[in-house]
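Re: folding output
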Amino acid sequence: MKMIPDIQSCIICEDVRREINGKLMLIGVTANMILPKLPCKIDKLHIVTSLCCGEGEFELSTKIYAPDQKTVVLKNEKPNKIILKDTNTLATVVQCFINPTFNEKGIYWVETLIDNNLKLRFPLPITTKDDILQQKQNHQ
């Protein structure tokens, strides 16, 4: 019987490495991005999604929308195939986006879909170092 899984977590980070013991090491975990300038091309962006409490075969895909909430800035080319043998099986999917470019500051939106159905949506604020410095000066 097919049972749609829950998303246990969805984390954005700069890099992911696998330790000798098989555990993932997430580097540069972030809930927002402070870039040197805009537009800005970064080396890599990883989205790590953990799934649980599901059963069956699924396709997981991720999209990031620009602040206009219409323009897709990033998406995985092919959905990731997930197989959960039973409801006690866990799955972690690491998606790596190479050289993504962000053109403007604002609130970007990250969407995670399972079988083309939206399961999770959250904001990813993007700003520049200069904006942060300006905000600090205004609050002094």
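--- second protein (sequence, then structure) ---
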Amino acid sequence: MKSVRFPTAVPFCLWLACLCLSATPATAAYVTGNDLLRECASHKSVNVESCMHYVAGVIDYQFMLQSLGTEPAVDFCLPRQLPLDKAAVAVAVYLEKNPQLGPFIAAPSVAMALSSAYPCARSTPHKKHHRHHR
């Protein structure tokens, strides 16, 4: 086993210490409703795409839950050919109309927005509603 020479180890340790001390503090690892609305309402295409991808992630997660037979607490049924940008617009409009949701995690607000815009048909005891995937 080779030992690290002192002259090599000291600069590395100093560099590592400086890196750790100069690092910016970690930010929250989630997107708030305000964050999402800011992305959706942006004039920069990269931000709008970020908004649409976030909405798509929530939709994909919802569909995964549905495919496993798990009934989500907030359910929505999207039209078969709904473009993603229209779903994102529905979410942005919902967030604008419900500013009290802004400081909270955006994912539940996305589900509530889509449920409001695209509710599932009420199912009868013998007939379960059909969910459309994108």
